Amino acid sequence: MRTLFSLLCFVLLVLTGCGGTAAPDSRSDTRLNRPLMSPLPGSRPSGSDRSVSALWGSDLRVVTDGDTGAGLEMEVVEGLPAIAYYDNTNSNISYIRALDANGESWGEPVVAVSSATAGYFISLEVIHGRPAIAYASLVDGHLWYVRAADKEGQSWQAPLHADPVVVSAAYISLAEIDKRPAISYGDFDSQRVYYVCANDKKGEDWNERVSIDPEQPSLGFTSLAEVAGNPAISFQRSQYLGYARALDKDGATWGPAIFVTPDDVNSGQYTSLLVINGNPAVAYHDARRANLMYVRATDTLGANWQAPQILDPLLFSGYFPSLQVVNGNPAIAYHEQNQGFNLRYLRSLDANGDAWPAPTVVDTFAFSGFLPSLRVVNGNPAIAHYGTFDLDLLYIRADDANGDL
């Protein structure tokens, strides 16, 4: 019963987001502005029946048995794309890796975390040469960490507590900082954002958590990256996009958190932080405007920031953005909820992200592109995503190095 209740709570949190005012639409939910609508499972069209951009290959079903992929992240592991995801049918966290460099065929799923502690808000990263996963348990709400027993991820070790105190961890981001695993996450109970790092390279012993912004409430939307040698986090600070960077490589002490968008209330949802051409940058959803947004710092530390840009003016766009560098320029995969609820992608015209073209609709099949994870796979951009109509884990890779016109 606890697991079912926790699952329902997670779905509501992801689909309705965290506090804020409604966007300008009478249909808006007061928390996310427009809930993600998903039909009941129906007929499942084959990959050839799905309408995809001419610049991208076929949309492959990586896993087709049951309801798989509601929480996911993709990384390149030992040269091949790999995905960690939640298997809702079997209530576990599974891991699957391609059999070739392009991701045209895939191996069998491996259970990384059993139903005893499994959960959502999954973050996958290569830690000390092996794939590792941070996640929030649906059983106890704690922050957990698990690392593979081999470099390919064919078998997994027992999961460990990264934070046994938190009971409502969410919006988790795992990264390797100073050659050690580190995690940022939100805590729904305390309404604060925390950072915790391991004492060793493998993640077998963890420090106590640190509150990075004790003065302002936040429910998360965290994204962790190494910025100028120290950990840094983007997150929704109160109802604005926030950013903080540690004063040391361990993340024991942090500089003052700042409002990146002090004039944009209800911004900073689903943040994706990355160093772009030397300076930190963030892709995010602005719930007030209901658009996809991008902002980049004017310095290497993130002390000062440019004005944010609207990248997709389509209302109800920019959900779950995934920011990466693709062929030298920043690129973003994201989900829209206006014209078909589908998967979109765009890549900047320059290395800083100062100018952007119109977005490419990668998969036009309705209710695709949920929780996209963008990575460069064998030289070309590729996206793992969840189809809420299919209830399947999906993967698609561009035919060229840019993925756009």
Do you know the CATH architecture of the largest domain? 5 Propeller
CATH topology of the largest domain: Tachylectin-2, Chain A
CATH class of the largest domain: Mainly Beta
The tally of helices reads 1
| Strand-residue proportion | 35-45%
Radius of gyration: 19 Å
According to CATH, the homologous superfamily of the largest domain is Glycosyl hydrolase domain, family 43
The main pleated sheet reads as: 4 strands, antiparallel
Structural class designation: mainly beta
The count of DSSP E runs of length 2 or more, i.e. the number of strands, is: 28
Mean pLDDT: 86
- Overall, the morphology is globular
Order of helices and strands: HEEEEEEEEEEEEEEEEEEEEEEEEEEEE
Name the helicity range. Answer: under 10%
The low-pLDDT segments are 1-49
The number of distinct structural domains comes to 2
Strand order of the largest sheet: 1-28-27-26
How far is it from the N-terminal to the C-terminal residue, by CA?
A: 50 Å
Q: Could you explain how this protein is built, in words?
A:
This protein folds into two domains: 1-15 and 72-259, Tachylectin-2, Chain A (5 Propeller); 268-405, 5 Propeller (Tachylectin-2, Chain A). 4% of the residues lie in helices and 44% in strands. The chain has one helix spanning 2-16, and strands at residues 60-63, 68-77, 80-87, 92-97, 110-113, 119-127, 130-137, 143-147, 160-163, 169-177, 180-187, 192-197, 210-211, 220-227, 230-237, 240-245, 258-259, 269-276, 279-286, 291-296, 309-312, 319-326, 329-335, 343-347, 360-363, 370-377, 380-387, 392-397. Mean pLDDT is 86; it is low at 1-49.
